[in-house]
## 1
Amino acid sequence: MLILAIETSCDETSAAVVKDGVEVLSNPIATQTEFHQKYGGIVPEIAARKHVELISPIIQEALDKANITFKDIDAVAVTYGPGLIGSLIVGVCAAKAIAWTQKIPLIGVNHLEGHIYANLLISNFQFPISNLFPFLCLLVSGGHTMIVHVKGHGNYETLGRTRDDAAGEAFDKVARVLGLGYPGGPLIDKLAKEGNPNSIPFKHPMIEGEYAYDFSFSGIKTAVVNHVKSLQSTVNSVQKKNIAASFQKVVVETLVEKLIKAAKDKNVQTVSIAGGVSANSELREYAQKRADEEKLKAMIPPFEYCTDNAAMIGGAAYYKFKRKDFSPLSLKPLASLRL
Ligand code: KG4
Ligand code: ZN
């Protein structure tokens, strides 16, 4: 059972061929970072135009690498939201054209659901699928930060979410303040390895009580800005490393401790992470360590499936295919689609 999947929700153009929901036969990703870098963030208009240029070659590359042709595909899956509307339109139009011409089902996939299903792709497949549910997923990306109770395929309850900035957004903003460039997450991750995480006592942004699973990252972002201002001169490289390490430690601990608390409160035995920020080396290590200490199972997605990619969309689409959860050719891209 082969699914061709397409992902164009933000600034990565990707297509993948996924077999039986777990085996990734190809997953080329064309990143547009170099075109957005000089603006310090993603320019939606540029992203949409680049997707138009890249979509056909990337689909062909995915088919070639999997050693198949359009005729071998059983269904075509595509991210239809949430994301940048101009970017989403490109992928959805391409998928519709393929579904129509090949007379195969079209499967619209929620991008957030795709991130969760990155955990089920084969290179990480540690648990039999029957034992997988329920699990909690800390979904951390450039636009979202949430704790999701995954009760079964396509069955989600959002336990908490950020009230202001997403975790990835905070990484990107702190990187900008430190003059590191874009995207900030990987750059902070790298720099933090050389810094002292205990050098600056940034406060953990905890929300207690009824909203204990909610997050807030605007405060720590401001704390970093204020700290940089207080230095009253250009930040030197040692200071940058210490700021990166101290900021990252507080964010990672806050994310993971809330995930663990939710698992214990809900009596759920398996926790997982997903989304671009789950590529963070400290988050991956700390989530595994805390899960081990609490005798919980931890699912950490393979590094290459954390940031935006089409394989995760193909993974999620497989279970929709099995439920015959197909989309009509009138499928509309939705910028603010919720889980
Ligand atoms: O999931 P993703 O690729 O796109 C969205 O759906 O938003 O996530 C992108 C976010 C960016 O904010 C980026 O800085 C962050 O993920 N990110 C990281 C790392 N790699 C990517 N954040 C922290 N550490 C990383 N290693
Ligand atoms: Zn994403």
Note: Residues 117 and 316 are 5 Å apart (CA to CA).
## 2
Amino acid sequence: MEQELKDLRVEFSNALASARDEAALEAIRIRFLGQKSGCLTHLMRGLGRLPADQRPRMGQTVNSLKKEMDAGLAAALAALASPERRGDGLDPTLPGCAPNLGQLHPITLVRRELEEIFISLGYSIEEGPEVETEFHNFEALNIPPDHPARDDHDSFYAGPGRVLRTHTSPVQIRTMQRCQPPLKFIAPGMVFRRDAIDPNHTPAFFQLEGMAVGERVSLADLKGTLTVFWRRLFGDRIQVRFRPSYFPFVEPGAEVDISCILCLGKGCRACGGSGWIEIMGAGMVHPAVFRAVGYDPDRVSGFAFGMGIDRIAKLKYGIEDLRLFWENDLRFLGQFRNESPR
Ligand code: DAH
């Protein structure tokens, strides 16, 4: 009987510990102390059958366990009704804790803003792989293996005939291979070059490529499109000028400048006193590029352009060091909340 009492005690305290509400406590009371079939009640009834010399001591033990159970149940009931449990201790006037919300990276915000402008001009968005074939990244863009332009694109090689794309221009080739003219698309994405890291260079950065191909697409269309684009981005007073330049995949090719967004052309520190900011490359698609994708250069013409998204983000937000975009310091990234046009 002694052992039974010990087991009962352990069972009771386990049951009490797992009770979460009043109904559970009442069930425990009935199970152990109930008049009809409570386990302890049952033991108490059995006391009479014990030898007379054991009866007093066992009687005492059973009684003290009963008291202990009564007290345990009462304490548990009181705890359930305490102010903390009921939530009475809650002060609804206290300010809440604002959850830490994620937000878009400044480069993403700028990329989306650029996309938005081109979408409104009727451009679609195309994509290509970051691991590219040398054919798409170079050859088809009129940059043969020994071409000096390959030196400007210090590449990461990714196995025989494969490079991490050094620019977004290969998306021109992939899109033309897949679709027939007329075409009008942009291709934003990450590109890679083996540049030493400094405030103006990171080995991965972002470009946005653009292309329009059709029956009589002209240099005037290119200049008009880019003028509208830069004015939408930086305001109606922005001027756009073309300087003749060389890129193997366009002829004629141009470096495009916009008037300085800070001094609007007067000359300031940001533009090195010139009033102009070199911002992108552009030109009329080279016949060799059309031939590489099976288009007939006598029947179609087109323009193409490419710009650095990081560089535009730097200008727009007045950021001097590109590396900040990669360090993921939340104090830096937190400054660009709510800038998204979407
Ligand atoms: N792909 C060139 C680069 O990364 C940028 C560029 C220049 C793209 C002229 C073009 C273009 O489409 O016409 O430096």
Note: The chain has two domains: 2-86, 106-336.
